[in-house]
Amino acid sequence: MRVKSIVTQLALFIRQRPGKPNVRTLLRFIALLIGMIFIFSVLFHYIMLREGQEHSWVTGFYWTLTVMSTLGFGDITFESDLGRAFSMFVLLSGVLFMLVLLPFTVIQFFYAPWIEARRQARAPDELPVDLRDHVIITRHDPVTAALINRLRRQRIDYVLLVPDRQEALRLHDEGLRVMVGQLDMPETYRNARLDQAALLVTTADDATDTKVIFVAREVAGKTPMIATVDNPRSRSVLSLAGAQHALNLTELVGESLAHRTIGGDAMTHVIDRLGNLQIAEANALRTPLVGNTIAENRIADLGVAVLGVWERGEFEVAQPDTVIGNNAVLVLGGTAEQLLNYDEAFAIYNVSGAPVVLIGCGRVGKATARALSNRGIQWCMIDRDPSRQADWMTDEQFLHGDAADVDVLKKAGIEKAPTVLITTHDDSTNVYLTLLLRDLRPDIQIISRATLEQNVRTLHRAGADFVMSTATLGASRIMNLLRHGSIVPIAEGLNIVRVAIPSALAGSRLTEVPVRKETGATVIATVVNGDMRINPNPADPLPTDGDLVLIGDEQTEQRFAELYGDSPA
Ligand code: ADP
User: Best label site of 314, 339, 448, 554, fewest CB within 10 Å?
Assistant: First the structure.
């Protein structure tokens, strides 16, 4: 331990010394040392002869090395004063040159530069000049970790900028590609080749993001920059600073949780867009759709395509014979006018029932409450901190208490509520509350927020019907921007993607190529010259030039690319 700290300190001391270390100096020093050993061996020979002792040349070298290294076996010794004075001189030169200067020189001119070169390779200060189309990330957090996973899957280059070298080395050892640089220096962005990058992503607090964007703008050229915003008012400041996109994840998660809530009206709620195709969701509860198959309901007559059906947290890709259940939420695709046709047909139905229960009045909780109100769904919020009540919440809408207390839950109306939404940012609390609520009400719809992507599965296992993590949502939105709007997340791990028709599939029929079996992807539309044809007949040949719209999990697109060699649209 002590030796280790001395070596570390010595290495640190040497590293701080100015001057360019080089191996040539080390070689020169070694040559000097060999020269000294040679001269001492010759002198040993002659002084021994003067004393009347005869030794071989090998013995001369042997004696010189044992004395210089202070090993001194004492098997060969001088008798005369001259010989002893010579021994002392050799000994002192040995101490100085072999024991002090040799290790010092090796460390200075070999070990330290070698370590430095290794550190440089692991956490460089700049990226190769010819690097392009990469994504520059300024912070490592749940959103960017999820983004990096997706970028890796899509084989898109990225770099994480880290101001502190030690932290950069630690992140490198975790398998991330890092670059060391201060976020408030334009030089950093120049060295990260920002002007050649595909995107800059900054996910810190609003003030830091604004500074990053403002500084990076100097070198950004045409590269778009995206920032996450906490306060909606920061949106305009960020845009003034130079950000092309501002993502309010709190609002997005809140809306996403509210969308899946059973209740409210039966109208369509657009969740995203893929070119001119709008993806929307609509409740089936208390509409004549319930109990019939998709084919029997003739929804296609309105021009709208049913892409899939959510039933209690399970998503099923729509087939003509899929029966629409009481709790079904339909995922619909169509143009804005087609969705309007649907709304006109279903506006008369109101599916709203008892108020839903909301747990946690943080930022996401408030955003969810607003989104529920916009959908005409009544709610009751529980929070153990009374100061969280917003001024726009009535006393009936806010209940002070701990959601782990069954009496509090009952007071909020849990026994009648169709849905409970858990919105705290602490995943452990959310898992705990999900287990408790599932036990209390086996039939209730449980919707939960997750902060980390890896906790989504745990929440599902605990009994949640629908889980949306900030990380997944943020990462998918950023991916969508990077891919020019060709990917829409519809649930945790489930996407609608638009890909160019690979030449291996051009002109072939889906009845002949087992695309779904091999890749897990379902083709839901074809696009030729901007004209989208939803639910193409699998017996018709695919167009030779155009795009496919697929629905599938996170790996689908990768398998598709590996099998058919496509490129993103
Ligand atoms: P956000 O990241 O959306 O701002 P927070 O995690 O900061 O969310 O807020 C969560 C809210 O949930 C807090 O106001 C906290 O008081 C509340 N909360 C956490 N656990 C419970 C619980 N068991 N019962 C009631 N309220 C809770």
Answer: 314
